[in-house]
Amino acid sequence: MLMIVFEAGCLLLSVLFHAASLLHLGLPLLYALLVPTLFSGWYYSHYALANGIWYALIVLGLISWIVSLARKSAVLSDNVFRLKFFVIWV
After folding, report:
1. Global pTM value
2. How far is Cα 49 from Cα 51, in angstroms, rounded to an integer?
3. What is the Cα–Cα distance from 4 to 85, expressed in whole angstroms?
């Protein structure tokens, strides 16, 4: 029974990290899991700083989303322009 719970926990962590990496939130997730666990004394004595670091990591992930969306929209708009230009000359 203990082995099944352990394997389910590993599978859940694997899925969680995979989803976080797809959403560019792997580093904030790793920070949220490791810092309160391994550095609990520092975390609770510097609670505001630790949460500020975590929020900054999330903001960096959001900026990454914005940059990715801007690049994707630039590529799509360039493709639409090329298609319109092609249709005009055909």
Report:
1. 0.71
2. 5
3. 60
